[in-house]
Amino acid sequence: xxxxxxxxxxxxxxxxxxxxxxxxxxxxxxxxxxxxxxxxxxxxxxxxxxxxxxxxxxxxxxxxxxxxxxxxxxxxxxxxxxxxxxxxxxxxxxxxxxxxxxxxxxxxxxxxxxxxxxxxxxxxxxxxxxxxxxxxxxxxxxxxxxxxxxxxxxxxxxxxxxxxxxxxxxxxxxxxxxxxxxxxxxxxxxxxxxxxxxxxxxxxxxxxxxxxxxxxxxxxxxxxxxxxxxxxxxxxxxxxxxxxxxxxxxxxxxxx
Length: 256
Hints:
This protein has a single domain (2-254), classed as Purple Acid Phosphatase, chain A, domain 2 (4-Layer Sandwich).
């Protein structure tokens, strides 16, 4: 079994949908796909993407990204309701949002959000970042409370699903540490850092004993090892980003 990873498919764009449609229906039948969020804010397109991918892989594991929880075009009360709708859809389509075991290997989805542990958002960011308009949360929930709600639902090292696992692979949509962003990022783009993720994820990842973590969200593809954990981002991205994203599945692990 091979394990492939990709994130940020953004199926709202026709070229991205075409790329999924052209994936082989035969080459990956014994393989697992890690799908690290941002598929579509439209449930119909999310369902189409799930259906296409589950036909091509033996197992598909998924966590929602921020786009997947937008509610401004779906008429839902808040983004927690959207999360529940996405989770029901995943279950109906055979997509896993819970830990997956294959003998000694455990692959663990990790929910998250951003809590400004990477920096305080500027007035510019609060005005420009679409989540502030497209997501809605219940009264009393700021982004720190939203982050706590998600990370509290992640498995702990004592979870039965992780018992006797010899290899743990984790994945999230959001970044678990800001130094995953390379030094070459221009200063003007660093103002996005506050909304990239949370350090709470890295704490949990290390408590689980993960040796490999897949993430998305930044659209900056990278593979780097920090303090014993290898972090990989393989974002597909927007059509306008074709000149710097790989636009292909990445094999990140294999099981004999």
